Amino acid sequence: MRTNKILILFAHPLYEKSHAHKALIKHMPKTENIKFHDLYELYPEFNINIKYEQELLQEYDIIIWQHPMYWYSCPPILKQWIDMVLEYNWAYGSKGDALRNKLIFQVITTGGKKENYNATGTDRYTIQDLLQPFNQTAQVCKMIYLPPYVVHGTHLMQEKDYQTSGKDYGIFLSELLNMEVPINQILKYDYLNDWCQNELKTYGN
Ligand SMILES: Cc1cc2nc3c(=O)[nH]c(=O)nc-3n(C[C@H](O)[C@H](O)[C@H](O)COP(=O)(O)O)c2cc1C
User: Fold this and answer.
1) pLDDT value of residue 2
2) Pick from 53, 62, 136, 168: CA 20 to 30 A from residue 78's CA?
3) What are the residue boundaries of the structural domains of the chain, listed by start?
């Protein structure tokens, strides 16, 4: 069985106040095949080491952008990372093939509830609509963009709910490490969580 190498690019400007991501991170499997890469910790002045980030990306098969939803987008350091690291003729352009066929997806927490993220809800757009710029960025970089893994409704969660969502995420990552990722099957879902629920026996128990 193959082992995937997973790079988690984490962006949370208020981590000291976090509940949701703290629980997600606590339950990440501890293995050399998952690298947790905290962008705010590494680059408090936003001075991103482009060469280092590019070298790192090349070592991994699956890239995760993990962040809270901030004003319907990502926190600013992740945008800075995208702007600086995904260079012309490296990530995109006629000679830019460095990321071709790598898998990428987002792991997002939202204060808003899932049912609010649609045309008639208070958030007015689906998560998939709001993430189109990330999807298209990945597309231009010849990567395979998978649906997001989302923890919705964090404003209403209690500590036990954070821990349950963390545990589920840990199970998902453990499974992801050791599988031939069924891309076409996953692409039929809006949420990676739903794919996990339907297709992973160990998930959600
Ligand atoms: C500046 C800011 C902007 C936010 N924007 C949104 C938003 O657009 N949509 C939403 O559902 N929640 C929004 N939230 C709520 C956060 O997404 C939520 O608190 C976070 O995901 C919880 O994760 P944590 O406990 O790890 O901080 C926002 C929070 C802050 C501080």
Assistant:
1) 75
2) 168
3) 6-199
Task: Identify which of 18, 19, 71, 130 to mutate to test ligand 1's pocket (most ligand atoms within 8 A of the CB).
Answer: 71
How much is the pLDDT for 183? Answer: 98
Ligand 1 pocket by C-beta < 6 Å: which residues?
Answer: 18-21, 68-72, 109-112, 154
Residue to probe by mutation, ligand 1, list 129, 154, 155, 169, most atoms within 8 Å of CB: 154
Q: Which residues of 31-41 are buried (b: 16+ CB within 10 A; e: fewer)?
A: eebbeebbbbe
The pLDDT score that the predictor gives to residue 204 is 85
Task: Report residue 52 as tokens.
Answer: 């280092």
Q: Which residue's CA is the nearest one to ligand 1's atom 27? A: 18
- The token duo for 59 is 């070592």
Specify the pLDDT at position 156.
Answer: 96
Q: In the chain, which residues have pLDDT < 70? A: 1
Residue type, 34: I
How many Å lie between the centroid of ligand 1 and the Cα of residue 93? Answer: 34
Q: Closest ligand 1 atom, CA of 73?
A: 8
pLDDT of amino acid 205: 76
107 vs 19, 104, 151, 152, CA distance in Å?
15, 10, 8, 11
Q: Which CATH superfamily is domain 6-199 in?
A: Flavodoxin domain (3.40.50.360)
pLDDT score, position 1:
67
